[in-house]
Write a structure and sequence with these properties.
Elements: H1 4-10, H2 14-20, E1 39-43, E2 47-48, H3 60-73, E3 79-83, E4 89-93, H4 95-103, E5 108-114, H5 118-130, H6 137-150, H7 155-162, H8 166-174, H9 180-187, H10 193-199, H11 205-218, H12 222-234, H13 247-260, E6 265-268, E7 274-277, H14 283-293
Parallel strand pairs: 2-4, 3-5
Antiparallel strand pairs: 1-5, 3-4, 6-7
Domain ParB-like N-terminal: 40-130
Pfam families: HTH_ParB, ParB_C, ParB_N
Family: Belongs to the ParB family.
Length: 294
Amino acid sequence: MAKATKKQALGRGLSALLKESPNINSVTDKNAEKLVGNIVELELDLIDVNPYQPRTYFDEEALRELASSIKELGVIQPITVRKLEGNKFQLVSGERRFRASKLIGNKTAPAYIRIANDQEMLEMALVENIQRKNLDPIEVALSYQRLIDEIQLTQEELSTRVGKKRSTVTNYLRLLKLDPILQTGMRDGFISMGHGRAMINVENTEDQLAIYEKILREKLSVRQTEDLVKSLKSGTIAKPKKKAVPSFVKNSVKEISEYFGHKVNINVSSNGKGKISIPFHSEEDFNRIKNLLK
């Protein structure tokens, strides 16, 4: 948190700053320095969530634990916001603290104010989030892709911007070629980035899914997965046989599998009756699936 002396030296409250500088939206705007660097107790109702947030999944249990901590100790590290037009703000970072504060009914939270236009905001949010240690590989890959698509960066420029080797950036981006079910498995921690990289060169989706299930079933290491992929591509092992299923099942199985984050098994008898089996790999995974079924 900024030192108290700096905060006191500013000598003005938020309302005075906003009144003097109502339309500041970029670091290049006149009077921007009057808002930059201020930490204020900001009403949560004035803050919009970050549309550029690369993290799309927030663990509910971890959020409740954070809320309990905030209830006892308060928000120790301020959230970061950017100023919008008038009296509105938008989160740059700290969405977990923002959500947890609202969860326990807090009306305000300490906020560090930054200034940024939309493009500055997008780059700031993505680069700042990429530096976090707890982002999963797919969240990082999606953030890289957004920087390339929306800010028109080359991979070389991107590697400089995020402080990573170009080969590292490329390896993350290639993960987005994997089937969505494998991406979900990586996000949930059932397979590692190494497992994902090993399967990138397997072009057939059903082969990818078959290898994924084998990794989970037999707890294959990354090295074992690499050997399996090599054997599959060289033809020294047979490709998994496709199961014949009715068209009404075949047309829906991918959608159901993506919803649950696992390849579901569907067995259909000759009379049209069948059974859907949904695998799970831990108590946490089971509870996730149970909540989806609700």
